[in-house]
Each structure stands twice: as C-alpha cells, then as structure tokens.
Amino acid sequence: LTQDQMKLAAATKALEFIPDDAVIGVGTGSTVNLFIEQLATIKHRVQGAVSSSEATTARLKALGIPVLDLAVVDDLPVYVDGADEVNHYLHMIKGGGGALTREKIVAAVAKEFICIADETKYVTVLGEFPLPVEVVPMARSYVARQMERLSKPGIRVHPELRMASGDKVFQTDNGNYILDVHGLNIAEPVSLETYINQIAGVVTNGLFAQRRADVLILGTQHGVEVKR
Ligand code: DER
C-alpha cells in the first residue's frame, strides 16, 4: 500500500466515529483533506464543522459543509486531525502544516480527539520530526536562543525559521512566525510542552501531550488499526 492509500484508509475509518447531527472539529493537512472528502458523503447527517485553518475552511466550504465559529459552539463531541508524529501514548507532534495554534484550540474544546495517520507517523520517541514552535515575530531570536539551550553533549538542538516561497518568512493564519526545532529527543513530552509554553514570545508549540489524542486510527500495510 502507498502512504496515500494508508492515509485514505484511516480517513475513511474515521467516519465511524462521527456522531449523528453533530458539530465536529476538523484539523489540517493532507490526511484531513482526504477525511473532508469522506465527510462530504455523509454531510446530510453533519450539522457543521469548526475549522482549524483557512485552508481547511476553504475545503469544507467547497464541499458544502457549513463552517461554524468556535466562539458560538459549546459542544464539540469530536475533533479529527492528523499528526506529524504520534507515539505509543498518543502524544503527538503537530504543526507541519503551520496550523498548530488553532488546531490546539479546537482540540482543547473537543471531547474526543481522533487522530488519523499512516504508519510512517507512528514512532516510539517523538522528535525526529522537527518540533514547530509558533512565536510572536519580535521574539523569534530570543526563543531560538532558548531552544538552543536545550542542547546536550552530542545532541545539538537547532531551531530554523520556517520560510515560505523564496526569501519570504512563513506566516501563520495568526500572523506569527514558526521555528522548526531540530535535534530534540523527547522522552518527556508533557513536561517539555509545559516548559516551552512558558518562554516569553511563544504562542503555541507543536507538542500535543497535555491534551493527547483519545483514539489513533492508523493506516498500516496490513489494514487499519484503532488504538486508544
Ligand atoms: O500541521 C498539522 O498538524 C497536520 O495535521 C500534520 O501534522 C499532518 O499533516 P499530513 O496529514 O499532511 O501528514
């Protein structure tokens, strides 16, 4: 099976976790885009969606799924999103698509976080994928220095400012910058998430560990596995 076929299998399986007539939270990324297409096939029994990015909003609207403002939603049974890495405790690294702040907000409101992923994302230790950290632009150098201090003998931690096309700095939907932090080996995801959050200038970091996934739907070479 190709990676896309495994993503599609996970995205399709997620429909079984969508309650009738619910408002559901929808994440960002290529796996979620496959899920949105599947969601459109049952949109008659979906009240609406709360989106985690402008990109997702555009796709939901294009498929005729009503997009609702999170501020007026007080009951969100499920949030469906992908991950860049997910460990065996269902802690995740997210933010590869740059939507980590709104993803974390919608995930916080949702009762159940359903992560959909292909097997290449399933790891024992988080950190191979560079950890995205969303920062207020003026704080980018200060936060970068704080990240470099996480280096240990033989393990150099180095943050890179995420660029868009050419020499333009990538900007999130919130107008902030992203540092992609390479070289981390994350044995304690919850404490590292908390540590990074308290650095002045950090808006959000891509560790989803305090609030991890409740269900992982994993597309593998041998079919779809559901892990809790
Ligand atoms: O940016 C994100 O958090 C996305 O969910 C990302 O982690 C997964 O993107 P993919 O489904 O395209 O791999």
TrEMBL record:
The active site annotation covers E103
The record, for Pfam families, names: Rib_5-P_isom_A
Catalyzed reaction equations: aldehydo-D-ribose 5-phosphate = D-ribulose 5-phosphate
Report if keyword Isomerase is assigned: yes
Q: In which pathway does it act?
A: Carbohydrate degradation; pentose phosphate pathway; D-ribose 5-phosphate from D-ribulose 5-phosphate (non-oxidative stage): step 1/1
Locate the residues binding substrate. T28, G29, S30, T31, D81, G82, A83, D84, K94, G95, G96, G97, K121
Which domain of life does the UniProt lineage start with?
Bacteria
Recall the GO molecular function terms of this protein's record: ribose-5-phosphate isomerase activity
Known InterPro entries for this protein?
NagB/RpiA_transferase-like, Ribose5P_isomerase_typA_subgr, Ribose5P_isomerase_type_A
Question: What enzyme class is recorded for this protein?
Answer: isomerase
Q: Which EC number(s) does the record attach to this protein?
A: 5.3.1.6
Keyword field: Isomerase
The family note in this entry says: Belongs to the ribose 5-phosphate isomerase family.
Q: Cite the record's note on assembly.
A: Homodimer.
State what this protein does. Answer: Catalyzes the reversible conversion of ribose-5-phosphate to ribulose 5-phosphate.
What protein name applies here?
Answer: Ribose-5-phosphate isomerase A
Give the species this sequence originates from.
Answer: Crenobacter oryzisoli
